[in-house]
Amino acid sequence: MNLRLRENPWRLMLAVNIAVLIGVLLYKLTREPYVPYIHLLVDYHFGFTKRALIGAGVALFFDKVPVWLVFALSGAVWLITLALFAKLFRRTFGFDDAHLPLFVFMAGSPFFLKNFMHTLGHFDIYGCAFAIGLLLIPARSIWFVLLAAASSMILILIHHIHFLMYVPTIAVIVVLRHYLRRRPTRSSAIAGLTALVAVGILFFAAQFLGTMSVPAAEFIARLQGRIADPSQQDLLRYTHAFGLIWYQPLSQEIHDTWERMPSNLLGVPVFALLIWLHAPLWKYFAGLIRSLSDPLHRRIVIAGIVAVSAAYLVMFAIVFDYSRWISNWAVCMFLILHAVKTLPASSEVPMISSDDRRTTILGAIVTLIPRVGIVRPF
User: Fold this and answer.
1) CB atoms within 10 A of CB 66
2) How far is Cα 172 from Cα 76, in angstroms, rounded to an integer?
3) DSSP readout, 64-132?
4) How far apart are CA 310 and CA 289, in angstroms?
């Protein structure tokens, strides 16, 4: 096995990625998950509430929420996402040596599983898991469209930011896997339009009707009453501070984001560098799009990528967790790449070279970067 690692640096990179993931996990276990923990305390006790679906599910089993539940729940979702992605990659490409560089640039990217490990407890990974699931199941029936709509609505109930973060990617997956692979029918068109309207209505309801209407003191007291260990003063303090985000209007979020914009923009060159480090992957993706046999398919894929990117630009203007948004944008591109690979192509695209020195160096750098972060790079 050691000889095989020395002969194939891409196998070594996979081993290093596993070690880095373990290191990131150990680091996270030493940190108190303040914000993710508070999200598990919020349910529908006071009526329809944004960001409350996961907390409502937790409330069915736990009257008092222990801190370890954040790591147990998010860790289980992380493992499920890893398994789903491995199954997706195996079905789309396979795990032979020729495809190892592509797997390293995706699965080993600091944008993807390593950053999801760093952000354990945040809800971004749910969107990724749902999108991968939609890439794995058959897309022949109109039920695929309805399932995608239901998945999008669940994501919005988990956190309404999914409307910009993963719902556009789910829509692109539906178009590429369902509507472009068969002749559209009246019933499929009606289902698609109905799904768009339903998802849009739910988002606006969550955004504008899901804000807490009871006095803040009553809401905070409810959250603090669900803390399993009330002796933890830090949890009590952070619950009071971050619990107020359920009262924060959209205008305040935009104000806070633009107030931090000058300092946050300093991280843009770092994000650009991280994206450039994946150049072999983007080159392969561009080749896949150019190889599509139908020009209409190429135009729709490009339009989908532009639409997903535009949604992330809107997020940049509203919420300041820039490292998370950049990371999830890259993950969305990875998933769209898998959807594009299923479309009819006129020629075979050369796989990322495992012998090219520049590609190997970039792969090694990507492997060694442990994460991107939440707000600012690293």
Assistant:
1) 14
2) 27
3) SB-THHHHHHHHHHHHHHHHHHHHHHHHHT-SSGGGHHHHHHHHT-TTTHHHHHHTTTSSHHHHHHHHH
4) 19
> In the block, which residue shows the tokens 């806070």?
256
Q: Report the distance separating Cα 198 and Cα 150, nearest Å.
A: 9
Q: Which residues contact 174 (CB under 8 A, 6 or more apart)?
A: 134, 139, 144, 145, 148, 192
Phi (first) and psi of residue 227, to 5 degrees: -75, 125
Is 227 in contact with 33 (CB distance < 8 Å)? no
Say how far apart CA 350 and CA 284 lie, in whole Å.
8
Three-state DSSP state, 292? strand
Residue (of 171, 212, 217) closest to 192 by Cα position: 171
Q: Which of 319, 150, 152, 171 is nearest to 248 (CA)?
A: 319
Total length of the chain: 378
Using DSSP's 3-state secondary structure scheme, residue 45 falls into coil
Q: How many CB atoms lie within 10 A of CB 371?
A: 23
Distance from C-alpha of 378 to C-alpha of 372, rounded to nearest angstrom: 5
pLDDT in tens, the chain (378 residues): 444 555 689 999 999 999 999 999 999 998 888 889 999 999 999 999 999 999 999 999 999 999 999 999 999 999 999 999 999 999 999 999 999 999 999 999 999 999 999 999 999 999 999 999 999 999 989 999 999 999 999 999 999 999 999 999 999 999 999 999 888 888 999 999 999 999 999 999 999 999 998 999 999 999 999 999 887 778 888 888 888 889 988 888 898 899 988 888 888 999 999 999 999 999 999 999 999 999 999 999 999 999 999 999 999 999 989 999 999 999 999 999 999 999 999 889 999 998 899 999 999 999 999 999 988 887
Q: 136, 7, 146, 123: which is closest to 54 by C-alpha?
A: 123
